[in-house]
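Good morning,

Attaching, inline, the backbone tokens for the sequence recovery test we're adding to the shared suite. The designed sequence is right after.
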């Protein structure tokens, strides 16, 4: 008893003596849903004007029900982590979007999909196509295993990037987001995709699509984080 209270006193005085001890990661909440906000991690390349730091992931329509994942200055697409507890343990969750209905009464599922690029197997193109589930193997760094509330994918080590396509055309929009397992191309910058808490809309098609929304770590406001403290 005495030893315990002594050591508690010691800990308290040590903490008081070291008021500038660094925290390892910004504080986060547990949310039902979130948007994904780009945090530029390689600030050496100024290839975007205006800069895209703090922009959100959303879809740009490139065909019927086909949406390339891109960054936008406005509000982002809302996602939730879908899966069971067992899916979390095996990193087999996915990122799902609330199913949408275009007035037909038929809800279409959606999610974040990773597809291999046609030209090589070192990068994955990201899309938000409707009528397709999110790719299994994506989630927000769960529980206490990772310090940051960021998107992971269960592929090779690599990084998310956003690219400046100088001559964007229909079907090849500006600000596409990809996953690069090899070197970051010259026209792209490395980003992290950080989860920012958002309300979960009412879900339709829960039984039809076997939706299993899980809570996820997310930041209240990514723009308010002072990274110099971590
Ligand atoms: C966010 O970006 C800042 C500045 O580039 C960097 O210091 C920080 O490590 C990044 N955080 C994450 C989680 O990527
Ligand atoms: C992309 O890069 C080109 C060439 O440097 C530049 O002229 C253009 O403004 C950039 N596009 C965007 C959206 O930043
Ligand atoms: C959600 O997760 C469950 C459990 O793994 C799975 O059966 C279902 O297909 C998933 N639904 C979507 C839309 O990803």
């Amino acid at each position: 008893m005495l030893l315990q209270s002594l050591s508690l006193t010691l800990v308290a005085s040590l903490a008081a003596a070291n008021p500038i001890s660094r925290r390892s990661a910004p504080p986060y909440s547990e949310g039902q849903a979130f948007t994904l906000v780009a945090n530029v991690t390689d600030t050496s390349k100024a290839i975007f004007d205006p800069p895209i730091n703090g922009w959100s992931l959303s879809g740009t329509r490139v065909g019927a029900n086909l949406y390339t994942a891109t960054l936008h200055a406005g509000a982002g697409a809302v996602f939730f982590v879908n899966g069971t507890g067992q899916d979390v343990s095996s990193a087999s969750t996915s990122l799902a979007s609330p199913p949408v209905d275009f007035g037909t009464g038929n809800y279409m599922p959606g999610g974040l999909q990773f597809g291999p690029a046609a030209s090589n197997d070192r990068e994955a193109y990201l899309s938000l196509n409707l009528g397709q589930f999110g790719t299994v193997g994506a989630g927000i760094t769960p529980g206490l295993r990772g310090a940051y509330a960021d998107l992971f994918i269960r592929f090779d080590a690599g990084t998310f990037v956003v690219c400046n396509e100088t001559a964007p055309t229909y079907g090849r929009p500006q600000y596409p987001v990809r996953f690069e397992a090899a070197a970051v191309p010259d026209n792209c910058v490395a980003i992290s995709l950080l989860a920012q808490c958002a309300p979960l809309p009412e879900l339709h098609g829960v039984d039809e699509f076997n939706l299993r929304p899980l809570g996820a770590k997310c930041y209240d406001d990514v723009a308010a984080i002072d990274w110099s403290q971590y």
